[in-house]
Amino acid sequence: MRPDPPSNHPGLPTLNPLKRLASQTAVYGVSSVFGRFLNYLLVPVLTYTFAPAEYGVVAEFYAYMGFLAVLLMFGLETGYFRFRAGGEWPAENVYATVLRFLVLVNALFLLAAILLREPIAELLRHPGHPEYIWWIAAILTLDSVGAVAFARLRAEDRAGRFATIKLLEIGVNVGLTIFFIYLCRRAFETDPHSLLGQLWDPDIGVGYVFIANLVASLLKLMLLAPQLRDGFRGRFQTNLFNPLIRYSLPMVVIGFAGIINEMLDRAALKYLLPFDDATNMAQLGIYSASYKLSILMALFIQAFRYAGEPFFFSYAKQQDARQTYALVLNWFVICCVFLFLLVTLYLDLFQYFVGAAYREGLDVVPVLLLAGLFLGIYVNLSIWYKLTDRTLLGAGVSLAGAGITILLLLWWVPIYGYAGAAWAHLVCYVSMVVMSYLLGRRYYPVPYEIWRVLGYVAFGVALYLASLWLQPVLDWHALVVGTLCLAVFLLAVLLLDGPRLRQSAVPLGPDARTMRD
């Protein structure tokens, strides 16, 4: 096992925990933001190439993948962090137990998908493309096994290797997608018998997106081979597996409920919208493209999750843990409000990332960004059930949120279309934040500055609404008004929290004064 970094050794100065979390989030964030930005570049490629109904197929299948990815992980990623940090079992055996179990169940899943691909394609109303089914299943299998190896890298603070492999995976995925959909497709249209033209099959169409993803996932697993080999050197412990799976299975419920909240709309829109199948798929494509415009918020939350989960577990025994968690939430919300304003105030620029046929959905982007912000707050608040092993209660909160999502989708989508789906997201996450905060106050009280947090959210929304009002009143360009509002927000943060930021950046420990960044 990789030894702890020198900064964790006794007698050496210790970095401020916020600085450590920020540095880890930055590394994961660079890989996530840059990598997903590369992926984000596919949005214009796809939306300028395919009609909304065709793009809707991609959105639909990736929504299905979100649900299956949670089921195929069995919540064992979080379970691995919990039992590895507990110290009751050798870390290598915890890893081996998780990895071997997931390899077995995912292999069985892939076999079933291959054998049943045709009836499943019929069920999903894609009878002409049964190959999509086993391609998707293969991607899920490779990603589930790879997720355990990535979890080990995260637990060992090997963010650099994590980021490198992630970037290579995404780079290959994006590169192959552009190669097939842009180069090979154009070559086929020019000369079907050319070398590149023969690689394009019009019957596969958007299915090349899945082929590129499959190749990238396979490459990722090859790069993770050293971590996978380590998993077969340890020992599968039955006496460890039983408590491990009991702890982890509620995380499946939590994760599945979370996917309902995040992705059920894209899986269900074609069934809930009151139009014919072709129109419903076109509406799904427009909504999914609009969802992509909220990607910056999702990227930041993802980066924070990667760094935050192991940090929260490892820092839980420190005397000032709860005060630190409160400060983390405060700065997290400031960053999220900044991202909300960055996208909404400059939406006139961001809109060009999607084709003209998709821009009728721009009105839902602010709602989706705000929903993502509250999701991020919930991610912070949810530490209470993870640190106190009350995962069943946490599952209850997620299930309640899923129930709200399902109810509102059934109610609002037939009436308001995909706008109803966006508002369902927001109401769901606000409700989950309230529930989690109240339960956290009882089981793991953290001195969150709740009014400061909500004040920043309200201030951000007010600035966005003010920009809409000021633009026609002042007759200024939208980008000028947006820049002015963003500057007001940054100035307010500097005045209200600037001194605290400078104070929290000071290293801790007896030798702190001698440390240099």
Q: Please report the distance between the alpha carbons of the first and last residues.
A: 27 Å
Helix and strand pattern: HHHHHHHHHHHHHHHHHHHHH
Helix count from the secondary structure assignment = 21
Overall, the morphology is globular
Helical content, roughly? Answer: over 70%
Number of strands: 0
Number of domains: 2
Query: What's the alpha carbon Rg, rounded to whole Å?
Result: 23 Å
Average pLDDT number = 85
Largest sheet: none
Approximately how much beta-strand content do the residues carry? Answer: under 5%
Contiguous low-pLDDT stretches (5 residues minimum) are: 1-15, 505-517
Derived structural class: mainly alpha
What's this entry about, in short?
The chain is built from 21 helices and no strands.
Describe this structure in words.
The protein is mainly alpha-helical and 517 residues long. Helices cover 78% and strands 0% of the residues. The protein has 21 helices and no strands. The chain has helices spanning 17-40, 42-49, 52-73, 76-86, 91-115, 117-123, 131-155, 159-190, 207-223, 225-231, 238-272, 277-292, 295-315, 321-345, 347-350, 365-381, 383-387, 391-416, 418-443, 450-474, 478-504. α3 crosses α12 and α11 runs antiparallel to α19. It starts with 16 loop residues before the first helix and ends in a 13-residue tail after the last helix. Residues 1-15 and 505-517 have low confidence and may be disordered.
